[in-house]
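Thread: Newbie trying to understand structure tokens

Hi all, I'm a second-year student working on a class project, and my supervisor (Dr. K.) asked me to get a predicted structure for one chain before our next meeting. I've only ever worked with sequences, so writing a 3D structure as a token string is new to me. If someone could post the tokens and maybe explain what I'm looking at, I'd be very grateful. Here's the chain:
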Amino acid sequence: MSDEPEPIKPDPDKKPKRPRDANQLAKLMVDLATGEADEADPDAGKDPKAVERGKAGGLKGGKARAEKLSKERRKEIAKKAAKTRWTKDSSS
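---
Reply by user tm_fold:
Sure, no problem. This is what the structure looks like when written as tokens:
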């Protein structure tokens, strides 16, 4: 055991997610500066029922889709994904 304290790990709940798109990020910055958006609540200004429905759908979507697909179709999708992942794209 060492006498050094454990490193401080960032808490993902404390850091708000920022949009990756530059235009969306710029709009968020303007909204934050003008007080139209609250950084603490990423769902502020959205219909709470719509947020709830979206979350519920997201939680069950992938599992429901996997159950509907046949074993052969899942295998085809997996092969295509692997091929795409491992094939070098010369245009990039």
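A couple of things are worth pointing out once you decode it. The radius of gyration is 21 Å. The CA atoms of residues 3 and 15 lie 29 Å apart. Feel free to ask follow-ups in this thread.
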